[in-house]
Amino acid sequence: MTSRDHHLLRYSLVFVWLATALVSVWELQGQSLQLLAGLDGSTPWLKRALILSGALVDLVLGLWLWLRPGRTVYRLALAVMLLMTGVATAIDPSLWLHPLGPLTKNLPIAALLLVLARTPHPEQLR
After folding, report:
1. Rounded to whole angstroms, how far apart are CA atoms 45 and 47?
2. Which of 2-16, 24-38, 58-72, 78-92 has the lowest average pLDDT?
3. How distant is the alpha carbon of residue 125 from its chain centre?
4. How far apart are CA 6 and CA 104, in angstroms?
5. What gap in Å lies between CA 100 and CA 33, rounded to an integer?
6. How crowded is the C-beta side of 30, counted as CA atoms within 13 Å?
7. In the 3-class helix/strand/coil scheme, how is 37-92 assigned residue by residue?
8. What pLDDT digit, counting tens, does each position of 85-120 carry?
9. Is 70 exceeded by the pLDDT of residue 124?
10. Are 58 and 51 in contact (CB under 8 A)?
11. pLDDT for 126 beyond 70
């Protein structure tokens, strides 16, 4: 893999994590809250806390991927993505059947993270 390829893959993931953090907060009272509709009995403040916590994790991962890339953050991002996919599946399994693929898109993201975790950072190749 070339240095340019590595950067392209990494920056695409940075965009995903930072955009997800931003949109989650932007849509706090809209789509973000609707995604948690399957949490019956949960109070509105708990749902907002879950959304904001998830957005904070996305922000931290996005910044870490951007500023301090390496195997540790790729593996952590993979673990977090798998955890969030599991939680989303438990809350609303029908998301796997959504035409825009909010959960199916995690499969290629997982593949990217695995490839990046197995590939030395471009600066290490010099």
Report:
1. 5
2. 24-38
3. 27
4. 23
5. 18
6. 6
7. CCCCCCCHHHHHHHHHHHHHHHHHHHHHHHHCCCHHHHHHHHHHHHHHHHHHHHHC
8. 999 999 899 999 999 999 999 999 999 999 999 988
9. no
10. no
11. no
Distance CA 16, CA 36 (A): 20
How far is 95 from 101, CA to CA, in rounded Å? Answer: 7
Average pLDDT for the chain: 91
Name the token pair of 107.
């499969």
Name residues whose C-beta falls within 8 Å of residue 22's C-beta, 6 or more positions apart in sequence: 55
Other C-beta atoms lying within 10 Å of the C-beta of residue 37 = 11
With tokens 């993201």, the residue in question is 109
Q: Where are the domains of the chain?
A: 3-121
Instruction: Using alpha carbons only, give the angle 108, 67, 60 rounded to the nearest 5 degrees.
Output: 70
